[in-house]
Amino acid sequence: MQARSAPSAAPQQARSPPASSVEKCGACGPGFASPLDAMKGPREEIVYVPCIYRNTGRKKPDFLATVDVDPKSPHYCQVIHRLPMPNLGDELHHSGWNTCSSCFGDTSKKRNRLILPSLISSRIYVVDVGTEPRAPRLFKVVNPEDVFWKCNLGYPHTSHCLGSGEIMISVLGDPAGNGKGGFILLDGETFEIKGNWEKGDEVPPMGYDFWYQPRHNVLISTEWGIPKCLGYGFDPNDLKKGRYGRRLNVWDWTTHAYVQAIDVGEDAAPLEIRFLHNPDAAEGFVGCTISSAIHRFYRTERGDWAAEKVIQVPSKKVEGWLLPEMPGFITDILISLDDRFLYFSNWLHGDIRQYDISNTRQPKLVGQVFVGGSIAKGGPVTVCGDEELQSQPEPFFIKGKSVPGGPQMIQLSLDGKRLYVTTSLYSAWDRQFYPDLLRDGSVMLQLDVDTEQGGLTVNRSFLVDFGKEPEGPCLAHEIRYPGGDCTSDIWV
Q1: d(CA 425, CA 410)
Q2: Residue 205's pLDDT is what?
Q3: Three-state SS at 55
Q4: What ranges does the record give for the region Disordered, renumbered to this chain (predicted)?
Q5: Which residues pair with 193 in a beta bridge?
Q6: Which residues contact 190 (CB under 8 A, 6 or more apart)?
Q7: For residue 12, which of 208, 215, 163, 209 has the smallest C-alpha distance?
């Protein structure tokens, strides 16, 4: 089922349809009529951030933090509410909504529940963010036994709402920790497990993230690795043994059948996948972590799907590190709502990059800033060979604090002018690559974005320090806005 190389389809200049009048979130059903309407939506005032205590040595449950990001607020850059989970060791990771812009126009739907899958425990928490957005409360817990027995799946990762009102969650593997690609389907009203989304006997060997686009009858999922291997940390001996993903997996949206695999290279570990927001566009980008490459995927003239590498972050020759060469380690990517800019984070090198993707086949680097990482001057790592930099970057300080870790999860404001950044990847890997994170806690930063010419600048007045939490330093991960954002909303 490996996809053969195909002639490149003519690149589509993907732009959203002309914007109609901007609807307030919820006025005509959840979300916005189009991506360009969303760009005119309200400025974010609070964000939700899962915070993790697993592997920190602190016997505390993970919690959902509500962070004030309104510059006019007296509580700016502060955690204003904490919702602890009722169990230990969950490893909250990525979150999603009960409904989003895929249901726009359905006035019976409200974006009032946040879905929080637990990567390690396989629990799924449903949080009420509608009753009091600034003080969420727990609404329902889906027990791991239900996930195991009803779906034969485990290690849930990405949650997306569907236009049908259902909720779909991708997984990394089966209950025993073996790799397996599949999807949990939840009822959008009761949040009971309905079963598996996928149909047929054939499934991919691994799973991770996904994005769907009904106009092209397609869902594409990615592969991180085998849960029982990567769960304890990154072991270089696992490389070349088929324990990390290498494929984009293509599904027929209508029949739910697995129809094609696109090989993006051995040990590539393709993680976050994003279609262009314009629902007419049959293309998008995926970030490959270990190979540190960005691939553009697209529908070919034959009607199948293919991928081509369009960005390669060169590894740096180093001393004083795990391996003689250090990859950039692309861990998160996103696309601005007007499909003009692509952003991604290099967790190990420590930089965030902005590319102009007006020509999707030839992204152009227009912004870059270092905010931590493993190659700063004065640290344990010496860079001996570097294709990009003349010297190692300066250590990153903000408000007098030396920031541990590297840039990881990113989220863009609806208008594209502010990029939020957190520094924790996954507790077991944090412990290995950035042990200071477990001692000092992670942070959330904000970058100002030049949306005209391109460019990134650190906002020196913004810092959320999760090292100062009442229960001790914790690991902050993904960022969500109450009204939806460019990594959770899908237009159909």
Answers
A1: 11
A2: 97
A3: coil
A4: 1-24
A5: 186
A6: none
A7: 215
Burial of 322 (0-12, 13-18, 19+ CB in 10 A): middle
When the pLDDT of each residue in the chain is averaged and rounded to a whole number, the result is 93
Residue 371 near residue 313, CB atoms below 8 Å: no
Instruction: With H, G, I as helix, E, B as strand and everything else as coil, classify residue 123.
Output: coil
Whether residue 347 is predicted with pLDDT greater than 50 in this model: the reply is yes
pLDDT tens track for 244-267? 999 999 999 999 999 999 999 999
Name which of 267, 123, 146 is nearest 206 in CA terms. 267
pTM exceeds 0.70, yes or no:
yes
Question: What is the token pair recorded at 391?
Answer: 């010297």
- pLDDT bin (cut points 50, 70, 90) of residue 231 is confident
Dig out the tokens for 443 from the structure: 């942070």
- Structure tokens that stand for 21 in this block: 């009048």
Predicted confidence at residue 25, as pLDDT, reads 41
Whole-Å CA distances, 260 to 196, 242, 251, 304: 19, 19, 7, 8
Both tokens of residue 158? 């990405």
Q: What are phi and psi of 243, to 5 degrees?
A: -95, -5
By the 8 A CB rule, do 423 and 416 touch?
A: no
Nearest to 52 by CA among 91, 96, 95: 91
pLDDT at 59 over 50: yes
Cβ contacts of residue 9 below 8 Å, gap of 6+?
Answer: 282, 283, 298, 299, 300, 301
Which residues are CB-contacts of 102 (< 8 A; sequence separation ≥ 6)?
A: 31, 161, 162, 163, 489, 490, 491, 492
- The answer to whether 46 and 80 have CB atoms below 8 angstroms apart is yes
Q: Which two tokens stand for residue 168?
A: 């779909």
- Domains of the chain with CATH codes: 44-476 (2.130.10.10)
Q: How many CB atoms lie within 10 A of CB 18?
A: 8
Cβ density class 130-169: b for 16+ within 10 Å, e for less: beebeebeebebbebebbeebbebbbbbbbbbbbebbbbb
Using CB atoms within 10 Å of the CB of residue 196, give its burial: 0 to 12 exposed, 13 to 18 middle, 19+ buried.
middle
Pair 125, 141: CB distance under 8 Å = yes
Listed residue (129, 183, 143, 191) closest to 159, CA to CA: 183
Selection from 320, 282, 273 nearest residue 301 by Cα: 282
Segment (H or E) for 428: helix 427-433
Cα(288)–Cα(235) distance, integer angstroms: 17
Report the alpha-carbon distance of residue 450 to residue 296 in Å, rounded: 24
